[in-house]
Design brief:
Layout: H1 6-38, H2 40-44, H3 47-61, H4 72-78, H5 86-97, H6 100-105, H7 107-117, E1 131-137, H8 145-153, E2 159-163, H9 170-177, E3 183-187, E4 190-194, E5 198-203, H10 212-215, H11 219-224, E6 228-235, E7 238-246, E8 251-253, E9 257-259, H12 261-275, E10 282-287, H13 298-301, E11 305-306, H14 307-311, E12 329-334, E13 337-343, E14 354-359
Parallel strand pairs: 1-2, 7-10
Antiparallel strand pairs: 1-14, 2-4, 3-4, 5-6, 6-7, 8-9, 10-12, 11-12, 13-14
Helix pairs in contact: 3-5, 3-7, 8-9
Length: about 350
């Protein structure tokens, strides 16, 4: 009987286990991964991270329920989109701690943020647009109003609303924009320039002066610092009511918190004027000193729609001009169709101009 040499038998014994060893190693590795994920360790690690993730999600989900004492609610809503930046920070911490509970908890803020702002990530604009409207807070401290006027005239806007026009800069804007816009009106610190005829121009009382002292001031004095106007633009499709407004500033104060009193009062007065507007077609161009997520503008946003939300691309931040973090310069409409919305390049102002194409 012939036997294999010892070397052959040894080789045979080594070859056979190796064919199963690769599979065995893979199964063993898979079992270790399953045990690591299903064991108590990953779910017990990172409870603080998990709690922070849940709090972040609830904060964004219930932002409307946050008290507005000290302007806290308005402050949160002004910068609400930026709360999404905490998600990758918490995710990095969860991965570093290898915390399964924190990773799962992060699903809540991710889903809430996407439900609030996911629709703003893409391009929502359409081709067309029969009329281009634009608005710009030109800035009282603008060092180059003539250059700003040239940039705005080159934007192609048919109707242009300006805020924060100083008495010194007014002649500069009127001269620089005269060729492109044969029709214009300036009331106080706001103005409207148009390629189309204007009529029924009048100031809008936004209650800049509240209380008995304001009531005693004559109309001529109030008009000098008026911050809102209303006019009718004669378009080929009929009259269009255009409002230009600059609401009160907001301030962060050590004792008072996020101070929004004058802005909120102005917003309510402006919403009241828009509600009483008989025209079915309305455009509001303005520096509202707040985002449309802010509860202070519920009276406006319930009657007007944001062109940026409807037909813009991204968030359309406008302030501050060098590194915009919030869209406080708005174009809101009613009775017309927003086709496109965009932010124009920075000028000498601390705000960026906004523009939109609308149709009927």
């Amino acid at each position: 009987m012939t036997r294999n040499p010892p070397s052959v038998r040894t080789a045979t014994r080594r070859t056979h286990p190796s064919s199963q060893g690769g599979s065995g190693v893979r199964w063993a590795g898979l079992r270790r991964v399953i045990r690591a994920c299903s064991g108590p360790g990953p779910w017990k690690r990172g409870p603080v991270l998990a709690a922070l993730a849940l709090l972040l999600g609830l904060l964004m989900l219930l932002h409307a329920e946050i008290t507005d004492y000290g302007g806290l609610g308005s402050l949160v809503e002004t910068f609400l989109p930026w709360f999404g930046l905490f998600v990758p920070v918490l995710l990095a911490g969860a991965l570093w701690r290898r915390s399964a509970s924190a990773v799962v908890a992060l699903l809540l803020p991710v889903m809430v943020w996407l439900s609030l702002f996911g629709g703003l990530l893409g391009d929502r604009s359409h081709s067309g647009g029969e009329l281009v409207v634009a608005g710009h807070n030109v800035g009282a401290d603008n060092p180059d109003p003539a250059g700003t006027a040239r940039d705005l005239a080159a934007s192609g806007a048919d109707v242009l609303g300006l805020e924060e026009i100083t008495p010194q800069a007014r002649p500069v804007y009127e001269k620089a924009l005269a060729k492109a816009y044969p029709y214009h009106a300036v009331l106080g610190t706001v103005g409207l320039w148009s390629r189309l005829p204007l009529s029924d121009v009048r100031p809008v009382d936004t209650e800049m002066d509240a209380g008995p002292l304001g009531d005693t001031k004559p109309a001529a004095v109030k008009l000098s610092y008026n911050r809102a106007l209303r006019a009718t633009v004669a378009t080929s499709r009929g009259p269009l009511a255009v409002y230009v407004a600059h609401l009160g500033s907001v301030r962060v104060m050590p004792r008072m918190g996020f101070w929004t009193d004058s802005r909120d009062r102005n917003a309510k007065a402006l919403a009241k004027a828009v509600a009483a507007e008989p025209s079915g077609r309305v455009v509001l161009l303005g520096d509202l000193n707040g985002t449309t997520d802010d509860r202070a503008f519920a009276g406006l946003t319930s009657r007007l729609q944001s062109v940026q939300d409807t037909a813009g691309e991204g968030f359309g931040f406008t302030w501050p001009a060098k590194f915009p973090v919030a869209r406080i310069d708005q174009i809101l409409v009613r009775g017309v169709k927003p086709e496109s919305s965009w932010v124009l390049p920075a000028t000498g102002s601390d705000h960026r101009p906004v523009a939109a194409g609308i149709s009927w």
